[in-house]
Each structure stands twice: as structure tokens, then as C-alpha cells.
Write a structure and sequence with these properties.
Layout: H1 7-16, E1 21-22, E2 25-26, E3 29-30, E4 39-44, E5 49-55, H2 59-78, H3 81-97, H4 99-110, H5 114-132, E6 142-143, E7 149-157, E8 160-164, H6 170-183, E9 187-191, H7 198-209, E10 217-219, H8 224-233, E11 237-243, H9 246-259, E12 262-266, E13 271-275, H10 281-293, E14 303-309, H11 313-325, H12 344-360, E15 363-366, E16 385-388, H13 395-398, E17 405-411, H14 414-422, E18 429-433, H15 437-446, E19 451-454, E20 473-474, H16 479-485, E21 487-495
């Protein structure tokens, strides 16, 4: 590999048959570029080489996309629910058929190792499969009433739903929200991150080919402050789903509150894991290392505060350091353990946190510097980093770093550990490693987070609801719970006397 050229990247993008200048995808086709539009570069974060361009959608184009979706929803609702499900299953099959190409595109776009991209593509197909099986099972209840009265409820679609997705998991985030939205009878306009648009726009085209009506899932392109703002302000948008930073989430939530529409927010995380003295230390060390391996630590779900019983701290740190010290770093297509960070600003941000940790008194055990990668000039690489002696008042323990940085904190008793774990503005996920079942249940009950992992810390299936407490967000994605956020309840009361 060289930093100036990589022939397999060009070949992969050519196979996609996507235009080098990407425009909005509306009504089953790419819109014509408009004169004077802002054009944004899309680079391969492993090399810094520009691989595509995004033509930012105008306010008029965003409006066209929303109107198109609004009109397409009426046709979608005329389909029998089972037929809607069959078409969604066809999308799942189409994603699986193109899984190899999609995985390569995801790696080029986001930098993550190819094996991780393959898992993400498989998960994306599973979302359409799972929710495709629910389309004819979205039902209400009959309610006990006085004699002569009959009452029942219906779950009805909301209308057009705006999905604003992040750069760290482009296709899974798209599928996670779009699939339940369509299953519930809604239409969608999605805005992927301008940094990683490739698989989202490709899959929108794939969906039409698989039988989803043109216009039902449109994609607009551009930055959040422009295209994203135009989208969520559109009067035909009846619900917003946003994944991203807390600051932007607050602004999105304020728009939803002003417009009196629903909102799902998945925001930041600083997820703690408590490692008890009786824990399987190898399993806990594996979980700690996985947090920096998975997408180079660029995951709000990752456990990045390991709270370790002081009695086993030294042994645990030794085991974790051994797992992290040998991790390979490189271009995602070369299947390293850890790929690059998404951009140079993110790279500088991570190094800034490491400087802050050292200044605050944390001890560097492994990594902590720019990673040197053969031919990787222009890439955004940081060595997997392990810090010990971290206190919960340090920025590295309180703020979301979004990089391959793991921190070890200490505790003397379980009450102290739970207190430290909950002492955060976030509450997305948390974990505990212990050999005692009673301890596991006690800790799970007291941790303030939307998902609790016990003696493991890895992603759960599509069937398991996911979302945060506190500043980690509102609402739940995944599982049947997601359907409830994408429908509204109508109650019908009849006099039958």
C-alpha cells in the first residue's frame, strides 16, 4: 500500500457504479447537480486520499425528498402488511447478495477493518429481516369496558421520519432506524454523515431494485447545519431520529419540542465496567481490549472506564496490557486489529486527551502516540492506549474520547464502584464481571444505564432494545420497542348496546 494510490480502492468503488459526485437519491434516482452547490470531499481515512465527492443538497431538494416520501407512504400503506414484509425480506436478501462489495465500501469510507465491516453488513441485513417479519404483527389491544361498550387500540404510522445517521457505523445505523420505520408503515428521508455516505446511498438504490417503492426511502446529502437543519424543520417530517453528539442532540431535540413532534436521540456514552475481585480476569481483559479494537474505539457503546477492585488491579492491568500491546494497526482492507480514526480533527482530539491524561497524573501503560503505518502517510492512526491511575474527575474519564483509549480506575468496595460508575452525565451502557450471581443482579439493578452487560461486553442482537439514560438520549432502538417509537396509538370506543 502507498499513500498516493491503492488500485483495489479504485476497483471497489468502480464496482459500486456510484457516480464520483454523489447527489441526493430521490424517487429512485440521483438528482441532477445544481449550479453553485457546495461540494464536499469524502476521503479514505487510512490514507487521506479523496475517493468521492458529496454535492450538498439544497433546501429545495430536501423539500422535494420529503414530499416524495410523503406521497410514497400512501402507496406503501395500500400494500397488505405481509407484502410489505416480503419486500423488506427482499431487501435483506439483496444486502446479503452484495455483502462483499458493501463491506469493502464501508471499510474505505469509515476505516474500520474489513472483518468488522462484514459484521456490520450482516447486521444491516438482519434488521430488514427481523422487522420484515413484524409487519403483520403490529397490533393493538382490546380494553375491558362497562357493558354495552367496546374499546380497542390501533398502532398507526407517523408519516415521514427523518433519520440523521453518524459516521462510525453508517449502514447499521441506517438499517436500525429505517427498517422499523418502514415496517410500521412510515416513509423515510435519511441524511448520512457527509464523511461516510457511500453505503447509505448505495443501499437506498438497492432497496428500490429489491421492490421498495421509489420515494419511500430517500437520501439527502450534506452537513448537519445545512442539509440536516433543512430536513428536521420540514413541516411534513413528523418524527426525527438522530445519533450523534449531546450538543447537536440538544439542538435537534429543541426543534422537535418547538414543532411538537416525536424524537429519538442516541447520544454519547462513557460506559463503565466494574471488574470484581472474583471476576474472570481474562474475560474482563478481553472485553477491555475489544473496546479499543471495535472501530478504533469510535463507538458510544464502548466500555471506556474499567473500574477494577484494587486487590486484582495489578494482575488485571498486566493481562489487559498484554492483549493491547500486540494489536496491529493499519488500513482496514489489510485486516488489522485496529484501523484509522475517521479524520484529522478526530485524530488531534484523541491526542489532546492523551496529553491531558498525562498532565492530570494518569500513567501510560501501553501506546499513547501516533501509530506509524507502512505507506500510511496521510492516515489518521493512534496506537491502542492503556491508562492506569485514572481518577473519575479527569477529562479522560468524564468525556467521550472516541478513540482507541482505555482507562483503568480503582475501587475498594462495591458501593464505591457503583457510585463511581454512576457519576457521569451518560447512561448508555454499563457492565460488571463477577463470579457471584447475586452480585451481578445487585449491580445490574443499581447501574444507571439503558443496557447492562454481565460477564461479557459486546454488542447484543437486533432483538434487544438499545438506548440511554440521562444525557445518552431518549427512546429505544432495536427490538419490538422500536416499533412503539415509530407508531402512534389510536383508541376507538364504541357503543354496542
Amino acid at each position: 500500500m502507498t499513500a498516493t494510490a491503492r488500485s483495489d480502492v479504485a476497483e471497489i468503488l468502480a464496482k459500486s457504479q456510484l457516480p464520483s459526485e454523489l447527489t441526493a437519491f430521490v424517487d429512485g434516482e440521483f438528482v441532477a447537480p445544481r449550479q453553485g452547490a457546495t461540494v464536499l470531499d469524502v476521503d479514505d481515512p487510512a490514507t487521506g486520499i479523496v475517493v468521492a465527492h458529496v454535492v450538498e443538497s439544497s433546501a429545495e431538494q430536501v423539500g422535494d425528498a420529503v414530499r416524495s416520501a410523503h406521497e410514497a407512504q400512501s402507496a406503501w400503506l395500500r400494500f397488505d402488511p405481509a407484502e410489505r414484509g416480503r419486500r423488506m425480506l427482499a431487501v435483506a436478501a439483496a444486502i446479503r447478495a452484495d455483502a462483499d462489495l458493501l463491506a469493502h465500501m464501508e471499510t474505505i469510507d469509515s476505516g474500520k477493518p474489513l472483518s468488522q465491516s462484514r459484521a456490520d453488513i450482516a447486521g444491516s441485513a438482519r434488521y430488514f429481516e427481523y422487522y420484515g417479519g413484524l409487519t403483520d404483527k403490529i397490533h393493538g389491544d382490546t380494553l375491558p369496558q362497562p357493558a354495552g361498550t367496546f374499546s380497542y387500540t390501533l398502532h398507526e404510522p407517523l408519516g415521514v421520519i427523518a433519520h440523521i445517521t453518524p459516521w462510525n457505523a453508517p449502514l447499521t445505523q441506517l438499517a436500525r432506524g429505517v427498517a422499523p420505520s418502514l415496517a410500521a408503515g412510515n416513509a423515510v428521508v435519511a441524511k448520512p454523515s457527509e464523511l461516510t455516505p457511500l453505503t447509505s446511498i448505495y443501499t437506498a438504490r438497492l432497496m428500490v431494485a429489491a421492490g421498495i417503492p421509489a420515494g419511500l426511502c430517500n437520501v439527502v446529502l450534506g452537513r448537519g447545519a445545512s442539509t440536516g437543519s433543512d430536513l428536521i424543520e420540514n413541516e411534513l417530517v413528523r418524527h426525527i431520529t438522530f445519533t450523534g453528539s449531546v450538543g447537536t442532540g440538544r439542538r435537534v431535540g429543541a426543534v422537535a419540542a418547538r414543532r411538537i413532534i416525536g424524537v429519538n436521540l442516541e447520544l454519547g456514552g462513557k460506559s463503565p465496567t466494574i471488574v470484581c475481585a472474583d471476576a474472570d480476569l481474562d474475560a474482563a481483559a478481553k472485553a477491555g481490549a475489544l473496546a479499543v479494537v471495535r472501530n478504533s474505539g469510535q463507538s458510544c457503546f464502548a466500555t471506556t472506564r474499567l473500574l477494577v477492585d484494587r486487590r486484582v488491579r495489578d494482575e488485571f492491568v498486566q493481562r489487559l496490557a498484554a492483549r493491547m500491546d500486540g494489536l496491529s494497526v493499519g488500513h482496514g482492507l489489510d485486516e488489522p486489529d485496529v484501523g484509522p480514526l475517521i479524520s484529522n480533527p478526530q485524530f488531534e482530539k484523541v491526542l489532546g486527551y492523551l496529553d491531558s491524561a498525562r498532565t492530570s497524573g494518569a500513567e501510560l501503560v501501553v501506546g499513547g502516540e501516533r501509530a506509524e503505518v507502512a505507506g500510511g502517510i496521510g492516515g489518521h492512526y493512534v496506537t491502542p492506549t492503556l491508562l492506569q491511575g485514572v481518577r473519575n474527575d479527569m477529562p479522560v474519564a468524564r468525556e467521550e474520547i472516541f478513540g482507541p483509549v482505555q482507562s483503568v480506575l480503582e475501587f475498594d468496595d462495591l458501593d464505591e464502584a457503583i457510585s463511581i460508575a454512576n457519576d457521569t452525565e451518560y447512561g448508555l451502557s454499563a457492565g460488571v464481571f463477577t463470579g457471584n450471581v447475586a452480585t451481578a443482579h445487585r449491580v445490574a439493578a443499581q447501574l444507571q444505564a439503558g443496557q447492562i452487560q454481565v460477564n461479557r461486553y459486546t454488542g447484543a442482537g437486533v432483538e434487544v432494545p438499545f438506548g440511554g439514560y440521562k444525557n445518552s438520549g431518549l427512546g429505544r432502538e432495536k427490538g419490538i420497542d422500536a416499533i412503539h417509537h415509530y407508531t402512534q396509538v389510536k383508541a376507538v370506543i364504541m357503543d354496542i348496546a
